[in-house]
Records
---
Amino acid sequence: MSAAQQYLFLDFEFTMPETKTEPRRFFPEIIEVGLVVVVDDRVCDQFSSYVKPMRFPVLTDRCKSFLNITQEQVDQGMSFHELVALLHQYDRSRPSTVVTWGSMDMKVLRENCMNANLPFPFTGEHRDLAMEYKLFFGDKNQTGLRKAIQEYGNEGVGKAHCALDDAFTTYNIFRLVENDKKYLAKTKPPTIGERIDFTQLRKKFAL
């Protein structure tokens, strides 16, 4: 029997420059990870940690304020090497699909791995749920994570920009979208008998 498919709902938070006009040498680094592991529609594991940035270890005031994070929290976090090893361990445990809200998480992870001279930890499929949501509902612009869950009449888990809370919120949207896709796939077009009310036609010709 083949191993059941594993879904890894992943969210990262990143370092930020002090101003939006980024200096050329700056690049975002992962400073928090949230991971929700789902097998057979059941949450079987979760993980959350701060991560120490390597190239720019001192957080800017803008970053600390926006993420409500302290320098001490990040300094006590796991190393980036440990993070990559952990993600690789999840990836090799069984066939995995990584699901993120948007493409930035995987893009920054890949760039951070290149800068640290580490192999990219994932070998399976990656699904950008924000893009799937946009295409599914025919939106012109990409919707934010918290706005998307509110459009379903729900609230996001915990607080925004907390990596584990956002990973759980991504999982909740994933379930809602997948259920909608299944519902539409099962809905068959009406037959001609269903389109026409024959009782009304019979009454008309009986006159």
---
Amino acid sequence: MAQQIIIADDHPLFRAALRQAVSQAVQGVSVLEADTIAHLQGIVEQNQDADLVLLDLNMPGAHGYSGLVFLRGQYPGLPVVVVSGSEDIQIMRRAIDYGASGFIPKSAPLPVIAEAVQKVLSGDVWLPKGAAEKIERTQGEPEEFSERLATLTPQQFRVLGMLAEGMLNKQIAYDLEVSEATVKAHITAVFRKLGVRNRTQAVIAIQQMELDPLDTTLSGS
């Protein structure tokens, strides 16, 4: 059976480059593509036996590391490699802390990306040259919030993302095609699992997942 890799990135040109690198790395590979976190969730739910996800942290619907934490919590057997435009060692460290199997800078040439994919598929963790030693010196413990975030169901995670975007219950219900009562039930469950009391606390909590700790915007980009 052909190996299956999911590419999650909102830039078509970079998805095409990743597809090319993946095709070089794995003969006969089946590639699926997602351009938003919601799209990615749908693909993973239908393809839970996929072999690897290549994940851009800056996608519509994502709040920094939240997509990574969710995937690792809901699908622990599915390796996730972060593919990022940043080469900041602290971002790499946090990605590994949150369960990533590797970190590929977008500036890496195609042969290097192909090598990284091969390494992760064989069960190794891949990092840029010299990064592993720096990460070991700064290794930290994942925050308690990330463990709580990982317990959310796919639908609860979608609702949390919509809350963070400032959407009202009526808007969330319309987008998810469910009743407002169902949305309220999801919100109650989200608050309980995250240990927060209201929307404001939930939004502040999800900001902890942003790439830049100093960035307090709610943008998904």
---
Amino acid sequence: MVVDTTVRSIRVLVRAPDPLTHVAVSDQLAAEPRIEAVSEVRPEPADVAVVVADRMTVEVTSLLRTIKNSLRVPVVLIPSEVNRADLIIAVECNVVAVLPRVTATSTRIKEAVLTAAAGGGVFPPRLLGELFRQVEQMQSEVLSPHGLHTSGLTPREIDVLRMMAEGLDTAEIAEKVCLSERAVKRVISGVTRRLNLRNRPHAVAYALRSGAI
């Protein structure tokens, strides 16, 4: 069997509340051939960050926001405890996997890192249920009264993007939604400008990914 040596390791930055925990988690990750634990002082960028914390304190939240803004990588969070409010804050900070510390075995940590690097997520069923309830509550209490979807799109914008996805041109869309072609173009340009999207196909792709259409 020929081994492909060109496959790059997943580089993981570990942040922990004490040196002993940091070394333990880094050593566990280093035992996986596909993972490389990187130092904070090394110039190479990370692909995933692993953050170990007791609770979602102000300091931990600040650390997560710093990682989000500077590294822009998915985060695996290993907390001693996490509650409903903490979960929403964590997700806003690019946390894609939560492993309660009591269940964070070496195997689960490595699997969570590999899943995060591949674009997936890992949440215990109880926490996932809480997250869904929070999203539903936000939709019903905050977004819907203002005519918004969780994607940040209005119902009119969703209608236009759905018809674009179906292959309709501007004139056909204008006829169906009873607007002028210029008004339809304003709707589309408003979406792309507000959400920093490049063009119409990018806007349709965004709507599809966010579940709006």
---
Amino acid sequence: MTPKKKVEFLIIGQGLAGSLLGWRLIQQGHSVLLLDPCLTHTASRTAAGLINPVTGKRLVKTDHVEQYLTAAKELYAELANFFGLTFLHEREQVRLFQSEAELNQWNKRKNQAEYAPFLAERFNAKDKKYLKETSLGGFKQQQCAYLDTVALLDHLRDFFLHQGCFIKAQIDLSELNISSSSVEWHDHTADKIIFCDGYHLQYNPWFSWLPLQPVQGDILTLKTDQPLPNEIVQFGKWLLPLANGQLKLGASWQWQPLDEKPNEKAALDLLDACYPYFPHLRQAQRLEHNVGIRPGTRDKQPFLGQHPEQSNLLVFNGFGSKGSLLIPWHAERFLRYLTHAEPLPTSADINRYTHDYFTR
């Protein structure tokens, strides 16, 4: 009999959540095995990786964003140093007022001290070439960035392969043999299994009771020979300028169907929203039309923790559209929970839904 290959943690999913958690565990000397089918259309690989501390029509600052930004910058700098490649790109961002209500909300926020580090000065139509005279203008946003998620995930996959801890596989959950002390999959055995597989959690027989609210989104990659703005531009949608005349344009929100198929109507809606500001993009070449399903949650907080009855089944999931910002900090908290039994953040701990599990 060939002995089973033994690891401490079996991680399902090599998106941003599974990859960053796997990296942190390995750096702390723990053994892991990551399983992923290596699909093209995933939330992590489709996402533009935008980091924006203040979002929404009401210009709401993400709770604890200061801690999240610090953790994100530190982890992405660590990865940049290891791979010799920059993944996190700090970039100025501007937001264009879409209504008088948004302008009034900005006037309210600019006088609130906790928003001062993130909201900069207002500008008028004459300050931006792409604004019409009738425009309400907009304002600058500070401490914004974008993460090159595809490059980062590709480099991390190569790292995991080199470490001998990655298998390309579409896991069939019925193949898992779960006991009180271990989890077995084929010829591998692990102390614990961690589900980091995004919206697929809704089909998981152990965690489907968690109130996941997945939403599908389309993002276009375009190429133009015309000048582009230097900053990220938010106008209800967003435009992210890249190198060599390329840009990303996003994003749509589709709750049904969740079919991971590019939606041409969604693409046209993105373009129609963009053209009033950048009419020359009518001649832009469409390079890619990508789609992914974001693993959002009912209370907009991630899912971290262990199954109420089976302690070797865990989840690290539900980061929605803010994964680039949220995952580094939560990965550190989850690492300490796994290895030092430190308590999880109450806002993210799935214990907040334990009542739902026992009253199904």
